[in-house]
Amino acid sequence: MSTLESAAVPRSFLAHGHRLGAWLTTLDHKRIAILYGLGITFFFVLGGAAATLIRLNLITPDGALLSAETYNKAFTFHGVIMVWFFLIPSIPATLGNFLIPLMIGARDVAFPRLNLTSWYLYMTGGLFTVAALLAGGVDTGWTFYVPFSTLFSSSQVLLAVIGVFVSGFSSILTGLNFIVTIHSLRTPGMSWYRLPLFVWAMYAVSLVMVLATPVLAMTLALIGLERGLGVGIFDPALGGDPLLFQHLFWFYSHPAVYIMILPAMGVVSEIIACFARRRVFGYRFMTYSMLAIAVIGFLVWGHHMFVSGQSVYASLVFSLLSFVVAVPSAIKVFNWTATLRKGDITFEAPMLYALGFVGLFMLGGLTGLMLAAPALDIPLHDTYFVIAHFHYVMVGGSVMAYLGGIHFWWPKLTGKRYPESWARFAAILMFFGFNLTFFPQYILGYEGMPRRYHAYLPAFQPLNVLSSGGASILAIAYLLPLGYLLWSLRHGAAAGDNPWGARGLEWQTSSPPPQENFTHPPQVREAYDYEAPPP
Amino acid sequence: MSAGAPAAVGRHDPFLEAQFDDAVQQREAATLGMWVFLATEILFFGVLFASYTVGRVLHPEGFAAGSRRLDMLLGTIETAVLLTSSCLIALGVRALRLEQRARCCGLLLATAALGLSFLALHGFEYYREYGEHLVPGIDFLQTGPAARTMELFFCLYYFITGFHSLHVLVGVLVIAVLTVRVWRGAFGPRHYTTLELAALYWHLVDIVWIFVYPLLYLVGRAG
Amino acid sequence: MLLPEASSIAPRIDALFWSMTLLCAAVAVAVFVALIVYAVRYRRGSNADRRGRLNQDLAVELTWILVPFALFVAAFIWSLTIFTFAHTPPADARTVYVIARQWMWKVEHPEGQREINTLHVPLGMPVRLAMTSQDVIHSFYVPAFRLKQDVLPGRYTQLWFVPTRLGSFPLLCAQYCGLDHASMGGEIIVMPPAGFARWLAGHAGAGSLAARGAQLFRSHGCSGCHDPKSAIHAPDLTGLYGTTVHLADGRTVVADERYLHDCIVLPAGQLVAGYPPVMPSFSGQLSEEELLALIAYIKSLAAAGPSRGAP
Known about the structure:
The structure holds 3 protein chains of 3 kinds. By secondary structure, chain A is mainly alpha-helical. Chain A is built from 15 helices and no strands. In chain A, α4 (112-134) runs antiparallel to α6 (157-184). Chain B is elongated, with a radius of gyration of 22 Å. Chain B starts with 22 loop residues before the first helix and ends in a 6-residue tail after the last helix. Chain B is mainly alpha-helical. In chain B, α1 (23-58) packs antiparallel against α5, α1 (23-58) runs parallel beside α6 (193-217) and α3 (72-97) runs antiparallel to α6 (193-217). Mean pLDDT of chain B is 90; it is low at 1-9. Chain B has helices spanning 23-58, 60-68, 72-97, 101-131, 147-183, 193-217, and strands at 134-135, 139-140. In chain C, a hairpin with a 2-residue loop joins β1 (94-101) and β2 (104-108). The longest helix of chain C has 32 residues, at 10-41. Among the domains of chain C are: 94-202, Sandwich (Immunoglobulin-like), CATH 2.60.40.420; 209-304, Cytochrome c-like domain (Cytochrome Bc1 Complex, Chain D, domain 2, Orthogonal Bundle), CATH 1.10.760. In chain C, 35% of the residues lie in helices and 20% in strands. In chain C, strands 3-2-1-5-8 form a 5-stranded mixed sheet, covered by helices on one side. Chains in contact: A-B, A-C, B-C. The B-C interface holds B 58-62, 65, 144-149 and C 248-249, 266-269, 271, 277-281, 283.
């Protein structure tokens, strides 16, 4: 509990203007975070609906539920929405926007107007993508490989590409804002090595967002131009090279997966430190490893192209670098585990999500190692093994971390506590539902089931049914938080300033914080200073 | 930066935004922000340069043939125009620092005018290329063994110069708006960060062209 | 439901796969056990000894950086040997041509036999597939062989194998290629060598691929320039395949299928040193099958002089 005098609790940022207009023109990073949270939830539901269709269709080998055309559009929509409109913005745009100024002791981000613009760009991009769906859908896969997407697909490629292009600028501007904010607006005493690991994660992810996304933007623009004008640079008949597209696309899309995982790693560090009540083991190595992931992540894109016709030499270089980039992730898993040692551990819902993350991210990462070996990638590429791998890291990893973070900072954001028993139940249900959904897919992939197949060989049915069963459990586990978090807004117990007894400047202000974040300067100490009592 | 410091203390500065503590911090943040933005622009154009490089390495004859069809005289004039405009805007920023508002406005207007001339010249190039049936997708009628890869070259030529010209246009508009604001006294000798950063953007647009010009116009000209 | 190992490389790939699976499982189990043990031992209220907390330890960090890295390098090297082997077809491999298109596989044996969605191969003998696509990117995937290779428009990719089991093994398209991607399947039929020879004899088409190519060579006027007696100075194609060519821009390339393909459809990019740049492009005039036939014909000019079309 902070040392506030018995004066009235400062006016919450939520109370400054209730009309829609106040929200749509806000410059407050905390409100913008909530705007993003609403958008992200909406797109998650859309993407989840597409996933439901997919898993329902795959219950029978003949895939009779959906036509081939509808199925192809469903998995494309699922990928496009989940990657660009859920995973990439999720933690940075909601938790990052809300927490960075608080964690560094600032009043807002460096460029609040740019921040609001980012949200509008995100929503506009989403609008175009949904328009693509309503106008008939896209059937190219989220990877838009040429020449199918430029010369052969008769679907709404242009609309979808515009949607992603516009939302890309949201990413770029958010990253730019975060970099400048973290450099320039840290409160006196908040040196780099006192920053919470979440801020380091936001900084690392911002570097990637800023440097990788422009490449995607131009690559998509080239596709759009080729479709719109009928000419382009990827057409083999003109001497163009379809592999050039793949290089350009993956040059962004591989760092993109680190955009999705680095923030999750930041969240998990905060949660484990709090609920083990100790400083994260190896703080400096944790910071270096996040930066290493960000940098080396730019050098491994060719591991998506081992069987594409790329040269053997290039494949071997990318393979070695892909093994190298796994090292910092391994460091982090070991350090989180070591943080538990001699801790004082409790198992609230955020901690369950964080521990689930460590296990599932590790499994996903280990299977990534297998794919990094080109000899193994030959049989496994474009099979369900790859689908299982990336869902382990993105869903078992990023989504669980996102939910863990939402639960952890829910009291700070809303001033309310969520019902703990429901939350723990949902977390455990999610863990089991997730494994039931995706572990069978590793086996399916090894056995030879390719991805993007609306129908499959009958021998694969039992594992598919298992997977679809797991998906229904997972769906329930996702709906539960939606329910009880909304419930808590009205009926939840009031949260104090620091219900978890955590360290970090955000816990030194009221819940919810006032508009200017702090009514008096927060006390800056070493990060995760759990040895001493809270300030 | 101290959060929670009462907002009123030391905040007489009308240019100072609420999230910043002092003018120095604000200027540094703005400058860092602009440099980060310029980095994104380099990566944005980098895709086009990478694609061009791949095409040029795989099809040297076709690219050389295409390059020889470009108007090197106009390209050279355009280069001179942009280089001069960069010099002028730098002088304009300096003029503002020396409190020479009228001179600054004049220099900014001249910069914008040169930018517009660049666009006009390039538009004229496009017009001539259209007349020579060198516009893929609209009117491309070339023959000879290198015709197909020449079409690839011209696709890249229009994409690269098109995106660049778009950036020039945005720059011209920004400079025009800033000229009006300078005239109205929105900036002072110690508060001209916006103008400085706009000049940085203009220099980037110029530097991109410095790469575009030799890559597109000067291939296969030697010997 | 264990997938059969039906090619010579499959056991090697499986060995690496299961070794890595075991290693990864061991690491996973170790970490899970550590997580559970720590979670239980150090839960709030337990009387475990919490003195002497360490917040960092350089030795420990370096250990769990260097040990995993060493293991990764070992895995990388093992994978490297298998991968380079997979990309090095033996010189005596039998070349079969594959043309992929939405949504079928067209197979052309050098002796002229054609198949759709099936490929007959002899047991125990190396087969090399030279593959191209007529439209979008596909991928030739045989799970039982543990092999896969993307098939691209405008160039040739290759895949080689030695079948080690008799029988029929599924062939699947593994690169999303549009509406009926999931239906683009087929089978590889491995026969004993004698049975395969009988199959070849029984399915003989109208002449070998090279013979068809010779006809096209004449009908499209190629011999007008490339015949040694022609007045036009054009490169002699005898024995060209597989040799090194010096191009006009200083590059040297090996005359493989891709080179020959590009010479026919995009000659401006492959101007040979010392020859005038007058060869017209045949892009759009020849189908992929016809291009393959021409390439097979040019390859057949290796041994004897220019053939007059005898199979």
